[in-house]
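Lab notebook, page 48
Experiment: co-folding of the full assembly
Goal: obtain a model of how the components sit together before planning crosslinking
Operator: M.T.
Materials (sequences as entered):
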Amino acid sequence: MENSAIEITNLTVKFNHFVALENINLSIPKGKFIAILGPNGSGKSTLLRTILGVITPTGGNITIFGTKNSNIKPEMIGYVPQMKTLDKFFPAIGLELVLSGIVHKWSKKLKLENKNKVMEIIEQLGATSFVNKPLNQLSGGQLQRLYLARALVHKPQIILLDEPATGVDFVCETNLNSIINSYSTLHSTTVLMVTHDWTSAYHHTEDIILLNKNLVFYGDKNEAFTDENLKHTFSHYGDKHNVVFNLHQNV
Amino acid sequence: MLYLIYTKMFEIITQTFFINAFLVTILIGFVASYYGVFIVQRQMSFLGSGLAHSAFGGVALGILLGTQPLLVAVPFTILIALLIAYFKEKTSLSNDTLIGIFFSTAVALGIIFLSLKSSYTTDAFTYLFGSILSVNSTDIIASIILFIFTIIIYFAFWSRWAYSTFDVELATVDKLPVKFDNYILSVAVALTIVISIKVIGIILISAYIVLPASIARLISKTFYQMTIASIIIGILTGLIGLFISIFVDLPSGAVIVLLQSIIFLSVFIFKNKFSQLENQ
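Observation: model returned without errors.
Model output:
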């Protein structure tokens, strides 16, 4: 499709005999802020990692702006991983983490041209006060801000976020989502965010993807949370009605 | 008294064996402490110990065949390092488990090879505990080649290795050849261990690789600072340890490692006290 940022066709991902994703078809338009929701093990992170090219699909294919995802340049995508992949004991300061988003490797020194880009995004995200601190002295919220700065510093066309609110308090989460929302609107950037926070997803994003290995729903957030969709999304949970009731209450 | 010390020192440092040892200590001090930063940050310290013990199998085979042990130990240890990396990639077994399996197998082979040779004791002991006196021209050439190889590796791989050491997922997303880089690191560490064991000894080589990087970690804010500090500490402690070992007539490897341990403890205590004072 002409206006689509990401095209996913018949995507299936298996790990040996375990099916993580099955026959996913999605056309994600340019400039949308989309939340990916689903229970644990529903394939949310697998979908992001497959789009990123970290996981090779068993079947189907993914194109990003018409180019196969394995051939796209790293500059096109800004990625915020789950915080659990971070080695907090690695000797580094915040500035180096953000810089890695420009040079796509670890730098010995900061060149002036890169420093200007880094400082610009750091100021925009309000991270100036802790950018020179060692990573192991930063709070979850401060780290998440730096990871977001790292993802945005090279002005990507697509942003992928894997549970960015993990370990972050409500205020900080709302701030981060507002920043992403403004950035997406300003630059027509497509944002895909994996989250467990249904309330936040509803308030900050435009469209919702409901996933349970298969694609249960993709569309406007106001049409997402129907009984039928929630039952299909949480079909492997024992007490479906309670789950659906609680979700309704939350949303 | 001072005159006597001076005379003895002058006597020692003008001898060929000391010049050889001095050169090899600088070269392997640089190399071992450089790779040490990746070993420490990737929490792979057991790999150093495992590969050193694996090298014993190669050394024993070399002794049995009556050739220069280093010539057999190099390919033997590289093969073990590659097998560990390959099995790590292809199975869900942990690094520790795989290193345990391969190094035990290599040591078992080494014991069998040595038992087949009747007069082995001296050579084998040299490799087990290290001996600066036994450094020969082959060791010097091997150290120079390893040093040049490491300088090339530094310029080609430091940024990539550092990035995947920090976060392997981000490095993969940014399309770095992480698996290939891991194989290169394994080969480089294997080479370093085999070439260093003549001086430091199989038993102590792991500590010799890990200690300078660990001291550097305590005093560094960034990974680049840690790399530079580790190299400086590795070379300086190597040289000071070498002088002390010759002067007091003790095994060089043990003296160097002991000196590094004392520095590590001192820095640790000083840093803790300093932090306490800062917090008050």
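Interpretation: DSSP finds twelve helices and no strands in chain B.
Next step: discuss with group before ordering constructs.
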